[in-house]
Amino acid sequence: MKTNSSEKARPSETRDRIIDTASRLFYKQGYNLTGINQLINEAAVAKASLYQHFPSKEDLLIAYLTKTSNEWFIGLNDYLAPYVMPKTKVLAAFDLLLDFSETVAFRGCHFQNIISEVPQESEAVRAIIRNHKARMRQFFTDLLSGTDQAEQADAVTVLFEGALIAGQMQQNAWPVQAAHTLLEKLL
């Protein structure tokens, strides 16, 4: 059977396009300021297609956060793969944080940005955000376990999260750089 450009996209392609569009818009302008009509227009999908894949805007938010979390940890592990020693891996994680912060013009953490926008009642969304942050804490805990600095994992996590949000507030690299310098002494 011949295909042509007017043929409809596969459902998975449509779903991916919706998530990609929502990801860009939610991060750039915020969840609450992103309307369904804008999503439909920018994703170039019919309203029925959007609701077929995501019955609610919150369902789309959950898909965005889940995808973003998974991509973050894949990227983090790939970035740290060349490093061997736990200390160098921790410091490299902060290098990645600096690269990320500069790349997104200090827009900040996807998860920290959303948590301030959703009501307390959005438990499913809040659970995904808590899970992502717990995974970061566990990442540093696992990285430092078996070392003399194992007890510093929570401090590293706090420095990481604090540097991320301070960089966003200051619109500058110095918070991440200061955390990196402190970690060089701490570890």
UniProtKB/TrEMBL annotation:
Domain HTH tetR-type: 12-72
A GO MF label: DNA binding
Organism expressing this protein natively: Spirosoma arboris
Keyword Transcription regulation in annotation: yes
Protein name (Swiss-Prot/TrEMBL): TetR family transcriptional regulator
Lineage per the UniProt record: Bacteria, Pseudomonadati, Bacteroidota, Cytophagia, Cytophagales
DNA-binding region listed in the record: 35-54
Keyword Metal-binding set for record: no
Keywords on record: DNA-binding, Transcription, Transcription regulation
Signal peptide location: none
InterPro entries: Homeodomain-like_sf, HTH_TetR, Tet_transcr_reg_TetR-rel_C_sf
Xref: Pfam families: TetR_N
